[in-house]
Amino acid sequence: MASWWQRGIIYQVYPRSFQDTDGNGVGDLRGVLDRLDYLAGLRVDAIWLSPVYPSPMKDFGYDVADYVDIDPLFGTLEDFDALIDQAHRRGLKLILDYVPNHTSDEHPWFMDARSSRNSRHRDWYIWRDPAPGGGPPNNWLSHFGGSAWELDADSGQYYYHSFLPGQPDLNWRNPQVCAAMHDVLRFWLKRGVDGFRVDVLWLLIKDDQFRDNPANPAWRPGDSPVSAQIMLYTADRPEVQQVVADLRRVCDEFEDRVLIGEIYLPLERLVAYYGADLSGAQLPFNFQLLQASWNARGLATLIEDYEAALPAGAWPNWVLGNHDRPRIATRVGIDQARVAAMLLLTLRGTPTLYYGDELGMFDVNIPPELVQDPFEKRVPGIGLGRDPCRTPMQWDGGAQGGFTSGRPWLPLDPDYAVVNVEAQRSDSTSMLTLYHRLIELRRSSSALTLGGYQPVAMTGDLLAYIRHSGTERFLIALNLGAEPHAVATPHEGTLALSTYLDRHAEPISRELHLRANEGIVIALS
Ligand code: GLC
Description:
Elements: H1 4-7, E1 10-13, H2 29-34, H3 36-42, E2 46-49, H4 77-89, E3 93-98, H5 108-115, E4 127-128, E5 149-152, E6 157-160, H6 175-190, E7 195-198, H7 240-251, E8 258-261, H8 267-270, E9 283-284, H9 288-291, H10 296-309, E10 317-319, H11 328-332, H12 334-346, E11 350-354, H13 374-378, H14 421-425, H15 431-443, H16 446-450, E12 452-456, E13 462-469, E14 472-479, E15 485-498, E16 507-514, E17 519-524
Parallel strand pairs: 1-2, 1-11, 2-3, 3-7, 7-8, 8-9, 10-11
Antiparallel strand pairs: 4-6, 5-6, 12-13, 13-14, 14-17, 15-16, 15-17
Alpha-D-glucopyranose (GLC) binds at residues 59, 62, 99, 163, 199-200, 262, 323-324.
């Protein structure tokens, strides 16, 4: 019997940008609650909420000052309880973001840790003496630019931060840290959350000998600064597997919960996070579509490589967008974004979609004076900033797109006047209608939700595959190019869906005709 997280579709809500109800320009939990009917109507299965914990917001919630409460900006624990209750009433699961790698420097644990070398929580973080000649203990780099070591002048030692100095890394080699962080999971699991998306899961353990990372000869100016080194000693260390298995064990104390890992690693390392005998994350996020160059042959290869790399019994998953990467419509253009939607929702494995992508929202150019993202502030001007993909959800054509009655924390795309939920709802060929139809089709078919995947050989810009379960079989053919294509096929069937949403139930035999940028699903007879 498949679990909900195998059959289901995950929808990521970035709470700051979903729906504001109190006019301060930042989204909140009541806003998510008010929009639950929209999400239930879209027929997704689970909502993943980016962090809503108390935070100084240096990294917009990924700097947690208290793991077991809600930031007043987003609401209260009562609001959270109401949200989870109302989500469950609508058959929606709720997945929280869990940020175990680092706390905020305003977390009481860190405030105590830095208060003296002998404090109770000192060893909950990673402290080192300066290098023999002075300066940082080794060459490790922060993901947000510069050294990953920050000098604490009072104690004369450096602490390690994978991200901002305001995000000191916890020491997962300390059993007290593990125990305290396991209790955090239990706190939310008891409150009814259905699972966790674990932030930077592959970074949790660092080399215990603090060896220098080697330089990366492939690095070029303009690349992310941290990739100037090969993260041999700061990422994907062997001991992390035990940490993952322990997190999973805690989730498994409760029924039917899911552990999802944020992991940016090459395929062969990524799949290690399913764990020995699948004792790790049920869904190590598969980010290949975020990075793939958008052509049929490349995609065909990466899908097959992924399918082949999966350990026995492991369940696949696909991610099309998130709050850290450019939006799909910006990456591949609005026409191919429709093809991408069909790909995501017909591949084998749990799909995760990012709020607003169902409307074809674009990245928004943020003028320098409005930049919020600390990454962009520290490493400006090379396109690493994440504000462009975090702009407010576009609900209607009214003031601020229905997102807020105040001034939004990031500007809306001026296209919101036409690209919005209300307008697309009543448009039979809109992106939103396409998402509705794709989700309906997927949900109604065991071949598409749980069935097998079989590649179909094609050439040029065409990508094709079959999904099958018992006697039910679908052929999916996607034209990744901007030229029409006709291709002979041995298959016969009936058109179930075109990304153009203008062809219906046509019989198909001998030839497939695909217009420019068209994807089709055919129910095979
Ligand atoms: C993850 C989050 C990102 C955050 C970083 C540090 O990559 O997705 O938004 O800045 O971790 O917590």
